[in-house]
């Protein structure tokens, strides 16, 4: 009989997040039990709260690895925790599966991200879709408007990373503007005016006319 495969789940306990530990772990345990019943391969599920922190999350990974308690990482699911743990997993030759890691710097399957397997696509794929859409309609001047948090301690939003991939695909020449959708004083009318001046076409001319009537 083989030793149990040790699955380490790294996710935040914050229940307001769609990928909180209490939402992930039951599904993992169910899958482990199903596999054990079908082929008798035993697995042990170990989990830790990363707090979505680039400090605390990697510490848990280091602690468990050097305690001999890791065969596979499931997660992290927060980008700023995933990046350092993915780099360590490459050095440790330990597989890492995650539904996160959609940023384009995880695209290349080579050091230091050669051990990561993403199960949720990537933002660069979204960028390629939009490039084909722009080509289809002959749109060449593009302005990007997206949500990003003002508190720099929280890092960038997924919207930032999604449009960063598109911005890079467009040659890093497009006009862009970010805003914090949680900020009560965000001036959306003024933002749309600026956007309309930097994205030519019938749609932007129509938008300018609409804004004049507000």
TrEMBL record:
| GO cellular component terms given for this protein | membrane
Q: Does the keyword Chaperone apply?
A: no
**A Pfam family of this chain:** ANF_receptor
The record's SUPFAM superfamilies line, in alphabetical order, gives: Periplasmic binding protein-like I (SSF53822)
What InterPro entries has UniProt attached to this entry?
ANF_lig-bd_rcpt, ANP_Clearance_Receptor, Peripla_BP_I
Lineage top rank: taxon: Eukaryota
Receptor ligand binding region domain mapped to chain residues? 26-194
Q: Keyword Iron, does the record have it?
A: no
GO MF annotations in UniProt: peptide hormone binding; signaling receptor activity
Keywords (A to Z) from UniProt: Membrane, Transmembrane, Transmembrane helix
Q: Where in the cell is it found?
A: Membrane
Residue stretches spanning the membrane: none
An annotated GO BP: signal transduction
Q: What is this protein called?
A: Receptor ligand binding region domain-containing protein
Q: Say which species the protein is native to.
A: Araneus ventricosus (Orbweaver spider)
Which taxonomic lineage does the organism of this UniProt entry have? Eukaryota, Metazoa, Ecdysozoa, Arthropoda, Chelicerata
């Amino acid at each position: 009989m083989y030793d149990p495969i040790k699955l380490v789940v790294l996710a935040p306990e914050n229940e307001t997040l769609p990928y909180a530990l209490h939402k992930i772990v039951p599904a993992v345990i169910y899958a482990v039990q199903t596999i054990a019943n079908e082929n008798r391969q035993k697995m042990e599920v170990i989990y830790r709260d990363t707090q979505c922190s680039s400090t605390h999350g990697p510490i848990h990974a280091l602690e468990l690895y050097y305690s001999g308690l890791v065969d596979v990482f499931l997660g992290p699911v927060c980008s700023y925790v995933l990046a350092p743990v993915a780099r360590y997993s490459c050095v440790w030759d330990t597989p890492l599966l995650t539904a996160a890691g959609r940023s384009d710097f995880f695209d290349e399957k080579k050091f230091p991200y050669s051990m990561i397997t993403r199960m949720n696509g990537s933002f660069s794929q979204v960028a390629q879709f939009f490039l084909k859409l722009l080509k289809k309609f002959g749109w060449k001047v593009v302005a990007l408007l997206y949500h990003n948090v003002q508190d720099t301690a929280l890092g960038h939003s997924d919207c930032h990373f999604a449009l960063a991939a598109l911005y890079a695909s467009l040659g890093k020449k497009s006009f862009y503007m970010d805003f914090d959708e949680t900020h009560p004083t965000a001036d959306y009318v003024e933002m749309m005016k600026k956007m309309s001046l930097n994205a030519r076409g019938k749609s932007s001319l129509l938008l300018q006319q609409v804004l004049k009537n507000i």
